[in-house]
Amino acid sequence: MSFQILLNVFLAVIWMFLKNEFNGSTFIIGYVLGLGIMFVFRHFFTERFYLNRVKAVIQLTLIFARELILSNVSVLKVVLKPKLDMRPGIFAFETVLTKDWEITILSNLITLTPGTLVVEVSEDNRILYIHAMDIADKEEAVDSIKNTFEKAIMEVSK
Amino acid sequence: MFDLLLKIALLGVSLSMIGFLYRLIKGPSVPDRVVALDAMGINLIAIVALASIVMDTSAYLEAILLLGILSFIGTVAFAKFLEKGEIIENDRNR
Amino acid sequence: MIEIVEILSAGFILIGVFLFLVSAFGVIRLPDVYTRNHAASKSSTLGIMFILIGTLLYFYYKHSHFDFRVVLAIFFIFMTSPVAGHLINRSAYHSGVKMWDKSVQDDLKKNR
């Protein structure tokens, strides 16, 4: 990935030399043109084209924002309900992610999911212990973690 | 109109500050107090932002960053102290 | 034009203040530290983000300069708030704070 970015900067500098104009806007135009050239030749790189990864990061950020709003609505419902009738509890969740930063991002996302909060990560980084506001929502929470978050994070890291 | 709304907003933030203060004083356990303290730090940021709109100056916006960093570090230090009994440990492999 | 921006920014600020009030109410009302943490760490984060977005809009249109310090602050709070919530929760669990009586499940206890 770093090699591709370096190549892109190099193409932009070559564009600056060709135009004989050394300012910021020429650099940006050259960068975009270089991106186009690299997009055409993307099958010749050994790694994945790095714009895909940028796209995945943007998707992850959007998921973050959506979950934050949804979780606020659910907390609002619980807090403003006249009777406190939820049943909190801690459940274990086994994750398939292995790298440290992936688990960090996953636990941040879980903390922002409706009604769940990470309490502890086990020693071998495989099991997350999650405190749920209402244990009845457990299936739903596990489902959304597995299908949405882990997939989005793996899209970034693969 | 806008000024009135801003005053209402400041009043609301102060009210929620009183709520957190109640939990800070009463809170049966120490983690309760840390939760309240963390939320109060975030409340302070809101008050600085609103005050800078009321006074119509952007000079105070640096304080937002400082308060954010300080409240986060304070929370982390408190949590660590509660868990291990010391903040900076020399034995890193535990 | 300036009126529309003022209404928008006031709307953002009032939503933020409402979220703050809800989170304070939740911190007073909910029964134990874990559930209180739900209210404090989620609602406060979104509330401060709304208030800062309102501030950003106001300064952008009133003084027509885009203040990147506020963007930085939004980003920073967005990153750190879940971490702080998790750390408090973990330290509460390890220092032996009891869960609420009506809690039904504790998988962490079994595995220790």
From TrEMBL, chain A:
It is a multi-pass membrane protein. Keywords: Antiport, Cell membrane, Membrane, Transmembrane, Transmembrane helix, Transport. The chain crosses the membrane at residues 28-45. GO terms for cellular component: plasma membrane. GO terms for molecular function: antiporter activity; monoatomic cation transmembrane transporter activity. Its main location: membrane. It is found in: Cell membrane. Belongs to the CPA3 antiporters (TC 2.A.63) subunit E family. NCBIfam families: PRK08965.1-1, PRK12651.1-3. This is Na+/H+ antiporter subunit E. It comes from Peribacillus butanolivorans.
TrEMBL record, chain B:
It is a multi-pass membrane protein. The keyword Transport applies. It comes from the Bacteria. The chain crosses the membrane at residues 6-25, 34-54, 60-82. It is found in: Cell membrane. Its main location: membrane. NCBIfam families: PRK12600.1. Belongs to the CPA3 antiporters (TC 2.A.63) subunit F family. PANTHER family: NA(+)/H(+) ANTIPORTER SUBUNIT F1 (PTHR34702), NA(+)_H(+) ANTIPORTER SUBUNIT F (PTHR34702:SF1). This is Na(+)/H(+) antiporter subunit F. The lineage of its organism: Bacteria, Bacillati, Bacillota, Bacilli, Bacillales.
TrEMBL record, chain C:
The keyword Isomerase does not apply. It is a multi-pass membrane protein. Coiled coil: none annotated. The chain crosses the membrane at residues 7-28, 40-61, 68-88. Keywords: Antiport, Membrane, Transmembrane, Transmembrane helix, Transport. One of its GO terms (cellular component) is membrane. It holds the Pfam family PhaG_MnhG_YufB. It is found in: Membrane. GO terms for molecular function: sodium:proton antiporter activity. InterPro entries: PhaG_MnhG_YufB. Belongs to the CPA3 antiporters (TC 2.A.63) subunit G family. PANTHER family: ANTIPORTER SUBUNIT MNHG2-RELATED. This is Na+/H+ antiporter subunit G. It comes from Peribacillus butanolivorans. The lineage of its organism: Bacteria, Bacillati, Bacillota, Bacilli, Bacillales.
